Backbone:
């Protein structure tokens, strides 16, 4: 007897940026849930070339456009301001208009770097943005362009993304620990880490929710930590998995001690996810649990 195919939600999705840290986790998760997911990467659709975007997408059929592409090199954005605005602001606004004209919804990803970092409590969606870097300014302009095109479009702000695929902070900490036997990490900057596989599940929960009609949503794991707390947790988990024999010393740094940072960064940019929980009934798990899962994965790979 033929096996019944698992039921998938009938949506036709176009995913941009599927080779990035977020996109490479979103792709299998979306494919598991939705009937059709097609990817277009930089070679097929260069977001730095707005004229090309309209030409390429005119003949492409989709009812949901997920844009996980972005110019994410925060310091490089200071030098390449025009490119930052093309990719992070102009292109998303054009994509949002094309999607709206097709009657399709769009998901755009944004960042905690739209805030200036002067807060003492996690930022809510309605708190005023005041970016202090070109990256933050270009992403903020992108948010505005996307939300202006259609009220059904969704902007997801996230922070300190980590997960399988491209190397992120946990992999960097482990490499430093093994190579040098000690790590120096910034201790005066705080935010909430976001585990890409968790984010994929939360996004799908939002997309499947009847209660969600569009707008801005903050998504990250629960809890707030400094970069140093985050790094120490990675190291503790690595000791538990046997990847490290023992805890290595962690030397605290100030953000201003780091050489080569051209862009200003918010010192506090934790995100409040209450709005998401109210829509979906889902509470993000603590960042420490997500780090433990990821370090177990990295240990199997020998990071
Ligand atoms: N990483 C974080 O900690 C973090 C935090 C907050 C928000 N976010 C947001 O989350 C989203 C995903 O970030 P990520 O960390 O997954 O980024 P990433 O790993 O740097 O990946 C970015 C993706 O965008 C693509 N891309 C860059 N320029 C492009 C262009 N001109 N045309 C077409 N594609 C282009 C890249 O293509 P190639 O594969 O060809 O390079 C890559 O696939 C972004 O919107 C970012 O602003 C990230």
Residues:
């Amino acid at each position: 007897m033929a096996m019944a195919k698992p039921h998938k939600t009938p949506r036709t999705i176009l995913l941009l940026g599927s080779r990035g840290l977020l996109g490479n986790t979103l792709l299998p998760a979306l494919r598991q849930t939705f009937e059709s997911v097609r990817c277009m990467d930089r070679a097929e659709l260069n977001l730095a070339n707005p004229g090309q975007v309209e030409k390429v997408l005119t003949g492409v059929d989709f009812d949901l456009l997920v844009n996980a592409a972005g110019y994410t090199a925060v310091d490089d954005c200071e030098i390449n301001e025009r490119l930052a605005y093309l990719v992070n602001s102009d292109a998303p606004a054009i994509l949002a208009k094309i999607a709206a004209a097709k009657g399709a919804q769009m998901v755009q990803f944004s960042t905690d770097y739209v805030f200036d970092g002067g807060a003492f409590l996690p930022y809510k969606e309605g708190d005023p943005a005041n970016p202090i870097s070109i990256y933050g300014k270009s992403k903020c302009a992108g948010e505005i362009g996307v939300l202006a095109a259609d009220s059904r479009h969704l902007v997801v702000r996230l922070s300190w993304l980590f997960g399988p695929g491209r190397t992120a902070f946990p992999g960097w900490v482990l490499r430093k620990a093994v190579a040098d036997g000690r790590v120096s990490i910034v201790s005066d900057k705080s935010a909430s880490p976001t585990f890409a596989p968790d984010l994929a599940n939360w996004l799908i929960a939002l997309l499947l929710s009847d209660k969600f009609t569009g707008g801005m949503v903050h998504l990250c794991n629960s809890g707030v930590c400094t970069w140093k707390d985050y790094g120490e947790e990675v190291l503790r988990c690595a000791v538990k998995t046997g990847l490290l024999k023992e805890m290595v010393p962690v030397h605290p740094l100030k953000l201003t001690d780091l050489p080569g940072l051209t862009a200003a960064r918010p010192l506090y940019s934790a995100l409040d996810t209450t709005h998401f929980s109210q829509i979906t009934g889902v509470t993000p798990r603590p960042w420490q649990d997500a780090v433990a899962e990821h370090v177990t994965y990295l240990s199997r790979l020998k990071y």
